[in-house]
Design brief:
The protein is α/β, with parallel strands linked by helices. 40% of the residues lie in helices and 17% in strands. The protein is globular and about 75 Å long.
Length: 404
């Protein structure tokens, strides 16, 4: 609804800045509209007109100096972190703090990249708040849910806010009466309308189908929320992340050379332990999405439990090691793969005697794997670039998954 217009659309993304308010047509309702009249009724005849203010987001973005949106969005990430930090300077979190503290368990729900961010975020939350936390795939949770107690709170990660699997999850959760908090890039979305509380990821618009900066924003948002609930500082750690990300972006030519060296391999394995493994999951997904190469992430200790039989001289094993407690263990797993003919590359924050090593900055233990994720993003981009694939629009994929 604007000052002198009425628009009907299947998605509010079609609205422009002239729209002031909007009305969602609820399930089991119908409406009538013409130049002068507007009415919406339930199937039993009750009038329903629930107007909400419309907040316009400018979707007119361009690639600027970059060849593809994906590489632009990767390079956006230091500013995304700064924007998220600024966002929490004024955001009131008392309601979320009360929800977190009164419930005994927090469950993260997401799909694809959002699920991997949820796995990582659940461990961050457990570490900071000392509260039980888990992450589930939305597509599984919706139809095979675990036991849901009344003192569980649910956190949804969705870049688009329109993910069909998550919509089904919310419907189920609402039957139990539990709180649902959404972190999304689209505060006007279907999920924002359904959830109890919505927090803007502040990642900015993602055009490329393969998500990059939304993942980083989800983890950073979780870290800040947890720190604020504990009344602890977080800017020092996040400024270190910014410097670490910028350092990786500055080394893009080195990463491109690595992509050129390994573009001919057909099988990739990404290995890590703890949060490094969660970062590897996202890195492997990026390579699959845009380069169409078979790439699987494993906790490195699981390599010898079956997968080692697939390793040969056409296999590349990339390991992420940012936690000193498990460094020697992962190093041992790398040697196991090498002895079977695999080529290996190690990304680490610790100096080692291996010529095929990429060094990243050593920062806060909980956030260090994020630097590995950014490295993986650039590596996937350059592999796909060298293969001359459509990076922003990979085959068979869509930016917003609105069907189950």
């Amino acid at each position: 609804l604007g000052e002198s217009k009425k628009i009907i659309s299947s998605d509010i993304a079609a609205f422009d800045e002239s729209i002031i308010e909007y009305i969602r047509l609820e399930d089991y309702s119908y409406g009538f509209i013409d130049e002068f009249n507007l009415s919406i009724n339930s199937i039993v005849g009750e009038e329903i007109i629930n107007k909400k203010p419309f907040i316009f987001s400018n979707n007119n973005v361009d690639k600027g100096e970059f060849e593809h949106f994906m590489i632009k969005e990767i390079f956006d990430q230091p500013n995304v972190i700064r924007k998220v930090i600024d966002y929490y300077e004024t955001l009131e979190l008392d309601d979320i703090k009360n929800i977190f503290l009164k419930n005994k368990k927090i469950i993260f729900l997401g799909a694809g990249t959002s699920h991997y961010a949820g796995l990582y975020s659940a461990k961050i939350l457990e570490k900071i708040l000392d509260k039980k936390s888990e992450a589930y795939l939305a597509s599984e949770f919706a139809y095979y849910p675990p036991i849901i107690d009344k003192d569980y709170v649910f956190i949804l990660f969705s870049q688009s806010g329109e993910t069909a699997d998550l919509v089904e999850c919310v419907k189920l959760i609402k039957e139990y009466g539990n709180n649902v908090i959404l972190f999304t890039n689209n505060i006007n979305s279907t999920l924002a309308y359904m959830c109890d509380k919505t927090i803007d990821l502040n990642a900015g618009i993602e055009v490329s189908v393969a998500s990059t900066k939304a993942y980083l924003s989800m983890v950073i948002n979780t870290f800040i929320v947890c720190k604020k609930i504990k009344n602890e500082g977080y800017k020092k750690e996040l400024n270190e992340v910014i410097l670490g990300v910028e350092d990786i972006l500055f080394s893009k030519d080195v990463i491109k050379k690595k992509a050129l060296e390994y573009v001919g391999y057909n099988n990739f394995y990404y290995l890590g332990r703890g949060n490094d493994f969660f970062a590897c999951l996202e890195g492997a997904l990026k390579l699959k999405e845009i380069s169409y190469i078979n790439c699987v992430a494993y906790p490195s200790g699981e390599l010898k439990h079956g997968t080692l039989s697939l390793v040969d001289n056409n296999t590349l094993v990339i390991s992420l090691i940012s936690n000193k407690k498990t460094f020697s263990l992962v190093e041992s797993n790398i040697n196991e793969a090498r002895s079977r003919g695999a080529k290996s590359l190690t990304i680490t924050n610790k100096k080692i005697n291996d010529i095929n090593t990429i060094y990243i900055k050593s920062i806060d233990e909980q956030l260090n794997p994020l630097l590995g994720v950014v490295w993986f993003q650039l590596f996937a981009y350059y592999v796909a670039y060298l293969k001359s694939y459509d990076i922003d629009k990979p085959r068979n994929l869509a930016k917003s998954v609105t069907v189950e």
